[in-house]
Amino acid sequence: MTTTTTDIAGRRAVDAYTAYEIETFLKREARLLDTERYDDWLAMLAEDIHYWMPAIESRRRANNGGVTHLPGRMAFFDDFMEHLQKRVARFKQPTAWAEDPPTRHTHVVGNVEAYPAESEGEYEVYSTFVNYRSRVETDNDMLIGRRTDIIRRTPDGLRLARRKIVITQTLLQAKNLNTFL
């Protein structure tokens, strides 16, 4: 008996080897971020990356169908490669007082599902994450959410081309967002 995984649109999930490649890619990304290997992380991104984390609005289901975020509205991140490179460069500066001493990160990625995307050689990947951040003695924050990624196969390997990050919090308690998710 063969079981085929499909999403709500009826798309078949990618084959087992491709799923393994994608999960390995996401785990490597988490490790690079946890160990502050930001230049290596940037190398995992496509040149046309769009990295978007919209702000979440608490809305009643009856209002706008319960939509909690829309493009063009407030976002915590709405970045392209140039913005991400500038953020990484800022982390490295001695004047980046918010990162000295550095934040200690732990990224946990799970519930990974991958499906062929509309464009050939791209995959639509759904995952969940926990980002636990600890800084100095008492600053501890946790960001939890879901991601929808477009991961592209290139001659140089897989590259992250799009990321939409939806966190569960409507109000951030963290003092800063010096992190990548």
Explain what the structure shows:
- It comes from Duganella flavida.
- The chain has one domain (16-167): Nuclear Transport Factor 2, Chain: A (Roll).
- The protein contains three helices and six strands.
- It has helices at 16-34, 38-42, 81-92; strands spanning 45-54, 75-80, 104-116, 122-135, 139-154, 157-167.
- It has a six-stranded mixed β-sheet with strand order 2-1-6-5-4-3.
- The radius of gyration is 17 Å and the shape is globular.
- The relative contact order is 0.19.
Q: Report helical residue fraction.
A: 10-25%
Approximate shape:
globular
Strand fraction band? 35-45%
User: What is the CA-based Rg, rounded?
Assistant: 17 Å
Number of strands: 6
Sheet/helix structural class:
alpha+beta
CATH class: Alpha Beta
Mean pLDDT, to the nearest integer, reads: 86
Family: Belongs to the bacterial ring-hydroxylating dioxygenase beta subunit family.
GO molecular function: 3-phenylpropionate dioxygenase activity
Keywords: Dioxygenase, Oxidoreductase
InterPro entries: NTF2-like_dom_sf, Rng_hydr_dOase-bsu
Write the layout of secondary structure elements.
Elements lengths: L15 H19 L3 H5 L2 E10 L20 E6 H12 L11 E13 L5 E14 L3 E16 L2 E11 L14
Parallel strand pairs: 1-6
Antiparallel strand pairs: 1-2, 3-4, 4-5, 5-6
InterPro entries: NTF2-like_dom_sf, Rng_hydr_dOase-bsu
Pfam families: Ring_hydroxyl_B
EC number: 1.14.12.19
What can be said about this structure in brief?
The protein has 181 residues and is α+β, with helices and mostly antiparallel strands. It has helices at residues 16-34, 38-42, 81-92, and strands at 45-54, 75-80, 104-116, 122-135, 139-154, 157-167.
